[in-house]
Amino acid sequence: MDNEREELLEILRSYYGTAALNGFPAAASDLFDLDSMDEDELRELAQELGL
Asked: Which of 20, 31, 37, 48 has fewest C-beta within 10 Å?
């Protein structure tokens, strides 16, 4: 697995994990979807979220 993809996964997992633990259970579903995304999709999602 490439380093940039791994870094993006770590950032997004933290974001969605924090949201899920703070009362947004739908974020848990999004958390599991991250593993099936390629690097471009992860990068786009991170940009949309302002991360």
From this structure: 48
